[in-house]
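Weekly sync, protein design subgroup
Attendees: M.S., D.O., the rotation student, P.L. (late)

Item 1: inverse folding check
M.S. brought a backbone from last month's batch and wanted to see whether the design step gives back something sensible before we order anything. D.O. pointed out we never logged the input encoding, so this time it goes straight into the notes. Structure tokens as presented (104 positions):
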């Protein structure tokens, strides 16, 4: 299935930012972000974290790292995306990545 949802609008990026503001249990992460950042690779990583670190472990670093992958890829090759990211969504998503990855 690949990737089915990205936070490319201001509204979806704000929703993701709200979820990422506090610890997000790995056991609940996939359902919580499914329509905001839906991606098979991320799902596999979350399942792997549950197996190694437990269902109560915080999944935000995995989510932020995968989001960063998409942001970097979009910066390099925006034509590969069927939908354009809004400038405000890009700014919010970069802030999410910076906040989460610098805290941990």
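Designed sequence read out in the meeting:
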């Amino acid at each position: 299935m690949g990737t089915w949802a990205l936070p490319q609008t201001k509204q979806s990026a704000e929703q993701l930012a709200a979820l990422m503001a506090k610890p997000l249990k790995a056991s609940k992460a996939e359902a919580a972000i499914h329509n905001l950042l839906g991606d098979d690779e991320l799902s596999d990583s979350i399942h792997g974290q549950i197996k190694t670190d437990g269902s109560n472990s915080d999944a935000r670093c995995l989510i932020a790292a995968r989001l960063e992958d998409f942001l970097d890829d979009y910066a390099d090759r925006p034509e590969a995306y069927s939908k354009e990211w809004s400038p405000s969504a890009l700014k919010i998503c970069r802030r999410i990545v910076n906040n989460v990855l610098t805290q941990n």
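Discussion: Residues 77 and 88 are 19 Å apart (CA to CA). DSSP finds five helices and two strands in the chain.
Action: P.L. to compare against the previous round before Friday.
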